[in-house]
TrEMBL record:
The keyword Transcription regulation does not apply. Keywords: Heme, Iron, Metal-binding, Oxygen transport, Transport. Coiled coil: none annotated. Its cofactor is heme. It comes from Streptomyces spinosisporus. InterPro entries: Globin-like_sf, Globin/Proto, Hemoglobin_trunc, Hemoglobin_trunc_I. CDD domains: TrHb1_N (cd00454). This is Group 1 truncated hemoglobin. Belongs to the truncated hemoglobin family. Group I subfamily. Transmembrane segments: none annotated.
Length: 131
């Protein structure tokens, strides 16, 4: 069989947002900023009372990962199961997304990309918001 692809470079896969933002290291910086914003917000602090910090960090990484489409396969609890005991309000959900947008802005991400990211998170609202 003739190899018609010989000598032809493989088509570049469209980079994920994760790659566009600069990969693991850049995203790590966004996670840190995001984490500070969420924990400094008096309206959000109660949700995280008693949640250990490792778990919270993991939460932030997952959250960012979901937004950027860079998650390793996720085998944890469903979004509904993970959040239903928290009675997350629509307002709280909105605040968290706003803090993510703020962290991304500070990290130099352009507005259009931030809009795309926010759109990706929106469908999760119906699973996470239960109050
Ligand atoms: C798109 C939005 C969100 C995503 C992708 C997300 C993702 C996750 C994931 C993956 C977990 C871990 C589940 C586990 O380890 O079993 C989790 C737990 C948690 N999430 Fe979220 N989350 C979102 C929004 C929120 C919001 C808006 C709040 C609060 C205002 C919140 C508060 C928490 C807390 C407190 C936990 C820990 C629960 C526990 O350990 O008992 N999350 N979230």
């Amino acid at each position: 069989m003739t190899d018609t692809t010989a000598g032809t470079p493989a088509p570049a896969a469209t980079p994920t947002l994760f790659e566009q933002l600069g990969g693991e290291e850049a995203v790590g910086a966004v996670v840190d900023l995001f984490y500070d914003k969420v924990l400094s917000d008096p309206d959000l602090q109660p949700y995280f009372t008693g949640v250990d910090l490792d778990r919270l960090k993991q939460h932030q990484r997952r959250f960012i990962g979901q937004a950027l489409g860079a998650t390793r396969p996720y085998s944890g609890r469903s979004m509904r199961t993970a959040h239903e005991h928290l009675a997350v309000t629509e307002d709280a959900f909105g605040r968290v997304v706003t803090h993510l947008a703020g962290a991304l802005t500070e990290a130099g991400v352009d507005e259009e990309t931030i809009g795309t990211i926010a759109q990706r998170l929106l469908p999760l609202k119906q699973e996470i918001v239960t109050a």
